[in-house]
Structure formats: C-alpha cells, structure tokens
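User: For documentation purposes, I need each entry recorded in a consistent format: the amino acid sequence on its own, followed directly by the corresponding structure tokens. There are two entries in this batch. Please keep commentary to a minimum and don't merge the entries.

Assistant: Recorded as requested. Entry 1:
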Amino acid sequence: MTTAARCALPLADEAAMKLVASRMAEAFQPGDLIALHGDLGTGKSTFARAAIRALADDPRLEVPSPTYTIIQTYETRKGMVTHADLYRVSGLDEIEALGWDEISEHAIALVEWPERLGTLPADRLDVEISLAPERGAEARNVVLIGHGAWAPRLARTLIVQDFLDKAGWGMAHRSHIQGDASSRRYERLTLDRRTAILMDSPARPDGPPIRDGKPYSRLAHIAEDVRPFIALSHGLGTRGFTVPDVMAADVERGLLLLGDLGTTPVLREGRPDMLRYAAAVDLLVALHGKVLPHEIIVSDSFSYTLPDYDLDAMLVEAELLVDWYIPFQTGETLDPDERDTFRDLWGAVLRDVAGRDGTWVLRDFHSPNLMWLEEQHGIKRIGLLDFQDALFGSAAYDLVSLLQDARVDVAEDLELRLLSSYVKGRKAQQRVFDPTDFAQAYAIMGAQRATKILGIFARLAKRDGKPGYLRHIPRVWRYLTRDLAHPALGDLRAWYDAKVPPPEMNE
C-alpha cells in the first residue's frame, strides 16, 4: 500500500487556481509526474500554464495548450518541463512513438488525461480539478493528492504556505534562490515592492551512528534546527553586525521569514575584490576583538550555548577525506592501521588549536554567504547570511574560510596581503597577540578545512548525485598544498604525499 497525502481546496475563481499552481511548482523536481485530472473545460491547461510560468520565472511566457501538438517542452530554472495533453492519443503504442519515455525521463512532466499512460508511477502528484457552479461560475474544487515520495513533499508545501499566510506573505511572488550544499531551501518573496527571504529548514534526522553511538551531525556539531540561527542572528545583530532580521519564525517546523540583504555578492564580477574582502577581514578583526560568551541569551525563555569546536569535531571532519575522497580517487579504502595513523597525526597538531583563542567561529564565512551593502559603512557593509553551524573555537578558521575560498580562486598574493591586514588589526587591539602562533593556527585550520572539503565535495558527487562540486577540487587541493608547507605540518605532509592521490588539475 502506498502512502498518500490529500488536500482539498475550494477555490473562488481561476486566478486562485493559478496561484495554487504557481505555489505547487516550487515543490516540483526533475523526474516528477504531475497528473492533471478533470473534465473538458475545468482548467487543466490553465493549471499547467501557471506552473510552467512559475518554473520559468516568466509570467508572460507563451504556453499554448498541447491539444494538437500533444507534447510541448520548456527549459526552466529546474530543468526541462514537459507538458502533455493525451486526450487525442489512442493508446500506449502511440505515446511510445512520440518518444515519451525519453522526453519525460528527467523532466518535470505535467500530463493532462494521464490515464492514457496506463499504470501511473507510485511516486506522483495527482491534481483533480472540477467546476463548482453552486459557489459561482468561476469557482473550482482542486484536490491535491501526493502519492509515495510525493506525500511528505505535499505535506511540507502546505505547511510552508500556511506559515506564509499567517506571516502576511501568503500572496507574495516566490522565486527560488540557489542555496548551499545543505538540505535547506531558500526563496525570495516579493510583495507590494517589499522583499523577504524564506528559509525552509526542517529538523534534520540523525544519520547512522559512526562513533560512540553518535551520528556525524552531532560529532561535528551541525545545527539540527533553526534555533541556532535565531540565536546567532540576535547575538551578531546586537553587536553591530549586519544580519537578516528574523521577521517570523516557526521553530518546531523549521521555517523562518528573514529580512532581505539584497543580491550584490562580496565578489565583483565573480572574483575577489580587494575593497570588499578587506571589509570582510575588518569584520573578523572586530568580531575577534570582542569578549564573546558561550551562551547567547535571546530572551528570558530562549538562550543558546555554542558548542566548542573540539578535537572530536575537527577529527571527524578531517576523516571525510578518508571516507570519501580517497575511495573516490582510488576505488579503495584505507586499512584500519593507516586510518589510525591519520587520526593520530591530525590529533597531534589539532590539540594545539582546539580550545585556544576562543571566539565565535561562524564556520561558513566565505563568498557565497557574504553580501555587499554599498549604502552601509564600515563593517556593516558586509551582510552575513549563514551562521547557524557556529561554534566556539579558533579565530583562524573563519579567516581561512574567506581567504581560501573553495568556490573561487583567491590569489596567493591577495591572501597574504589580507592576512597581514588581519594580523595588524589584531595587534592593534591586543598587545599579546602573537603573529607567529596565529600563522601556525592559520595553516593548521586551513589544512583541516581543505581536507574536510575534499571529502565533502567527493561525497556530494558520489552519494548525492551533485558532480558539479568536483570542479572545485583542484582549487581546494592547491590551498591544501599551501597549508601543508608549514613546518608544523611536516609529518602530515609526508603522509599525504604517500597516501592521498592528487586530483587531475583542470588548468
């Protein structure tokens, strides 16, 4: 028996149905079948047209009914969309002759008269449309039924819409924003010339235990709900840093409505910009010069304690190289003794860093998460987007994240200039600041971070079907090579030279 979720929507008119279609389109994914049921004239093509226009982010896109062409295809921000009207098709042979299997395999398929396909897939969304003349000439009943994998997706879509309705943004135009490598989703909402950001971040389920009965997420202290984001937004905002305002929150369901920090990245034309990166470095100097607490008190009833970026967390992150990158490159896994050697070598250098020079480590302080606010001044020109995984640990980590950006080349001379600027700023604040010790911590945290990212990008490609991250691996390898050149990492460098295959460089 397949599971199903059902929602009946009595709609006043065709405009309301178009709105439902555009809202549902945000949940569509490549490979989906959306089966449109209803008599002639109920509005199946109208529903499909509104959904396609939403997927294309083009409210004026020409979307003719495929009554005579039978199949129409569209390129959208979610890939290929196929719109089919099978009313005039006599049987499966004719459908196969049209190349349906090939056309629809990886597309979002919106199909009118889907019963002509015969047995429908277990994972699908049924949309049943009927007229409701007793409520008015334009009134309709729309019933959404999510089958199989579509059941939780439909339920989540309805929860999100309910949240937006209660926040007063239910009628907003919604457009998807490319997010990070996590499971969080983001949308930009536009309503009456105002904008806001929807963060859809349901509580993450625990993965399998990997050590001491704990999953990776707990060992590495990955945020499991939206509470850390709310707390860090408060903690950073009250200390003068630019963060999105939390306009509305449903903590239990993992939904936040956030202020919009705009669309101008800290990069300029896709490259690091000295002025903007210098402002980001100044922000870190200001943050690291403050005495920051472990516990952030948001209200009398809500506080949050940052976990320590402890040795166990740093080691389990580094082991992603062993778990994913090395097998990805060689097709083989390390034997247990070599794995133990890897942990021992890393433990020896990380013990020096763990717990020392404690500050808030935002952990994702790099170009995708930094916005440029031209109208602001000083450190407020940098808008911070992603900090829910923040920890309490070494000040070197976030500087490395910025200056050894995994997704964009930072030239070595620019890195050194900005690193020098940071050191000067910290020395001006704190006479006991030791540049030599910091340089060592910078190399250690840089090597640890690059090691982790090599594993993450290999995992994204191998496990999650996201091969696009592989193009960044040569860049991360170059950063790793820089960091391992530090004398404190000599033993590790020798182990990497012997055991870790370099990637094929794309230069």
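Entry 2:
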Amino acid sequence: MKISFHGADREVTGSCHLLEAAGKRILIDCGMYQGSRELDEQNGDDFGFDPASIDILLLTHAHLDHCGRIPLLVDRGFSGEIITTAASRELARLVMLDAAGLQEADAERRQRHAWRRGDKDGQPLYTTLDALNAMDRFGRVARYGQPIELAPGLTATFHDAGHILGSASIRIVQDGDGGRSVIFSGDLGNSGRPILRDPQPPPHADAVVMETTYGDRLHKPLGPSVEELYAAITDTFARGGNVVIPTFALERAQEILYYLRAGVESGRLPRTLPVFLDSPMAISATEIFRRHTECYDPKERALFAQGGDPFALPGLRFTRETADSMALNRIRGGAILMAGSGMCTGGRVRHHLRHNLWREDSSVVFVGYAASGTLARILIDGAKSVRLFGDDIPVRAHLHTINGFSAHADRDELLAWHAAIKPDKTILVHGDERVMQAFATRLPATEVHMPGKGDAITL
C-alpha cells in the first residue's frame, strides 16, 4: 500500500488522499479549499495526479471541503466509480450543485468586470452541468459495517463517523501475504450530540490517516452552550432587535432547529418564536435529514417512528425565493434569521448582516468554525467596521461566539477514538500544523507522520 497526499495536508480544507493497492488507484475524498483568496485559487490547480488514472473514489462525507472538487475531477478525466453512503450521496448532490451555482454567479460577475477592461477572463471552476455529470459516477451504496470489494483481496468498510448525516470513517484491508490495513478517519463527530449516533471506532488497523481539526483543545460543554443560545435570543428580543445566526447548511442548521424546538417545548423560548431558515440549501438538507433516519440515534429515530419531527417549530418558515429573503430585511425586530454561509463568505447572511450589524439592539450569534480570513473570523476578532456590498458597515450589534456546538471531535475524543484502533502508524491530516504538532505529542505509542502536499508514505 502506498498513500500520497494532495490536500488538507498541514491545513484544514481540501481533503484529498490517494491510495495505491492491489493494482488499483483509490482516491479518498476530493474536497475544495476554503478560507482565504489564496486557498480559493488553489482549487483550479492540478490535482497532483492524473484524474483519468483513478479507478475508485471513496467519499467520507458531503461537506464541501471533502466533495467540492469532484465535478472538476470528472471534467478532467475521472471516469471511475464513486462509493459513499446513501445519505452522503444525496447531500453531495446538493452541495455540488450549490457550489456550481455559486461558481457560475461569481464567474458572471468577474466576466462583467473583465469585459469592461477588454479581457475575456473569469470562467467558473465548474458548471451546473459538470456537477450533474459527476452524479453519473456514483455507483454502489455503502452501508455501515458491510465490506465492499474494490478489487480481488481488497475491501473497504464504512463505519459511522457521527459527524454529519451519512459521514463515515473508511477501513481498507488488503488480504494475502504482506496484507495491510489502513483507516481514513474522515471528519469525526462530537459525542453526545442530538439526532446522530456517536462516532463508532473501526477495528484495529496497521495505519490511520486521521483528522486533527480540534486536536489541541476541548469543546465547551453542550448544556451551557444551549443556555447561552437561549439567553442571547431572549436578551436580543428584550432590546427589540433581530438575531442573525450564520449557519452551515449541513448539520448545524438542523441542530440549531432542534434546540430551538426544544427551547419552545420547554418554555425557555416563546411558543410564537418566529424563525426564518433563509437558505435553500439548508431547507433541502433538512428534507434529506428527514429521509435518512437510519443515521439517527435510537431516541430520535423513535421520535420519528411515533410521528414526531425534531426540526418542527410552530413559528418556522422556509424562504427559498430571493424575493422572500429580501422581504426579511423589513423585519425590525423579534425574529431569528438563519442563513448561510456559516463563515459569512457568501450567501444570504451577508445581506442580513448589512441590515443588522449596525444596530445596537440586534445580535449576531456564531455557532460554528470560522477560518482565518473569513468575514466571520474578522467579526469575531473584533472588527469595528466591515465592508459589505461596497459600503462600510459599523459593527454595533452584540456578537456572541458559542463554541459548544461543534460537529467535530475535540482533543480527548480524538485520542479516545485513536486508542480504540491502536494503529502502528498514525498520519495526521486536516488540521493546522501547530495543532497537529500539539496532538502528536499525545501519541507516544505510535509512529507519527505529518505529510506535506505531494508527499507519499508506503505501508
């Protein structure tokens, strides 16, 4: 077995790893870089391998930084099979189509500016048609715990990673003389969350390729985080303002809806609480969540079986159309506006920030990861004003950063997952280099590697 590394190597996004075994070239994830403009520009670079040479792509889950470059891979020659879980397949279609739409819109804006300069620049990274063509490559559906043959003597087994709906860690085993086994963690979930099951560690493997996003810290407990959310909403409504929640469409939107429903049912929040989910992607993702209760923990699955709905709120309204989204800007107070993107890098949330950041009676509640260079991080770091749609907007709203809602495992959960596998070799990926180094010091019983982009390791 040989593994080469082509993304999320000493950085957090762009996951892409190539395994060569049993005469097959198997790609694990093909994600998009996210964050700064420099990272965005890397998305159009060469992959570091010939896409046409890849036989199989195994997708751990449907976040953009794990599936976002699949349409580009197909456009550049990949004609093999994509294998993932049923839920990830549906979510990946949604994510790739959304990304294609954003790419096309951004390209159109760039082209308008280029034409004014007499240039012919600004093509999208890929189009909606490319995303639809990529869906034709999806083949067999993986089921947790059931091996799939990739080649004679080579199998892959998906194990529940508990991160988002359908997410998986993948254990690949090569039989025969000198046979080896390796686990690709994907992104690991935070235990004790609502809706989804906790991560399920796979059996022992010789090596593990492991994410380290939060490998240097512990998460704030969930209970106080939920109470902090309720307090932020209550205080804002008392001032007469709105609550803007920049929301990731997958998992985070559904989790916040879950806790808002629980707050209404427990009396912590008013029964007439008006909540607007202003994200077509999050709305569609919520519908996909409702279709895949096989990923739920037993309690939530039982609720669905009894006719309940963990996302149902009396005052919840979906706003798919642009005109309906624009109408929300006329609401002066007493509403919760949930919109993407979670890092405020694009999407409808930027319009809501434009209309609420300058208001002392309103609040912005951050409930997810904010990468360096994103608008969310700039606000969290204390900016006094930000530029939105050509205007300098003063930051007067109350800002809340609630860290306990992370969908990622923290340091101790990562260590416990690793200890259950007992690998001889540990390869750290998908994390800041400083975080990886801190995490590596806690792994004395294994050989640790931190590959850079383009590096290769033979098992």
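Summary note for entry 2:
The CA atoms of residues 339 and 402 lie 17 Å apart.
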